[in-house]
Amino acid sequence: MCGIIGIYSLSFDVPGSLVLDALRAMRERGTPHGAGVALYRPGERVRIKAFSFKPIGKYIELPGGVYDAELDGEAHVDGFVYVKSKWIDVYKVVGWPDDLTAKYGVDKLRSRVWLGHTRYPTNSPGRMPYYSHPFTAGDVAIVHNGDLSSYGANINFIRYRTGAKFTGNDSEAIAYLLNELAREIGVDEAVEELMHGRRYRWARLDGPYAVAFMIGGPEPIFGAFVDPQHFRPLYLGLTGDLVVAASEAGAIKTIAPEAKVWALRGGEYVVVERGEVRGKFRRRYVYPDLPQPPPNAVDASLYDPVKLAGEVRRLLAEYGEVDVVNVRGHRYLGNGMEFGTIRAWGVVGNASANVMSGGAFFAYGDVQTTSATP
Could you tell me the residue range of the domain that residue 103 belongs to? Predict the structure, then answer.
């Protein structure tokens, strides 16, 4: 259970601080065991960065005997190259998303296209930065929430075609597969192939997954897709300027409150290229006229995604009813209610209104369901 975010801007460079805001909104999906971002950042030469077990190039020494190195050119690396592209840059850490600012100043960077990830490791360790997302292959970068049971078959397919070196994290296979297939059959067909394996059975992804990706070039390509069984959540948000994909609707609303948001269903995908949105999806948002909140409503934006629930519980015990505005994925609201009334405006977060034996909970806006969120 990880948190992913992908942003494509049609008109302005998005600050890294906005990406980190979205990841903070999904903090409950992460742990201190990994976070990272990728951004579209064209350069004059190929950018090569690696986590090396020996000091090499221009480096930062990290805990655990690892060096984050940027190289001037091709060189033998005793470790793992994590980006080699003229178009894409990557920063990743063992830690929380805010550690990306502390170590690399990511909040000050700006780009038209971003990917972000906060990690909850399940099938590979979280003790080294090379296990953290995003993963790249050539000019492709991806972030992934899920677990691939097809990892063995996938890397055999990749090894048959390339001499790639793997960390053992299942998610990196997606980057290599997408890089190979997009060049061969185009981006849209490559996404279909990853989901269904009609041409190459060993290229099919098995297991739960939600993925956001970018492909570098003179014009960047952005996309996102979800497994055909819809075992992982993936929301899509659109404004006049932004296309945003994220694990939670609340993360999208945190950075784009005016966005129209809906959940991609199993087997659906979106691709954005040269400002044009295409893909295989159906828009499923309805915004009816809603009652206006009272002026004395609690402002959820002043609370983190978890602590608001305790304040709502206290106010409910004292007054018997609580009104809350600007809810953006805040969790556990109304859990264990026995009496009273809660009215919430915004995006009610996961695991809310659970184990209620009485009372009433009204949600005016969106609700993040738990059906696709283990």
Answer: 3-42+87-280
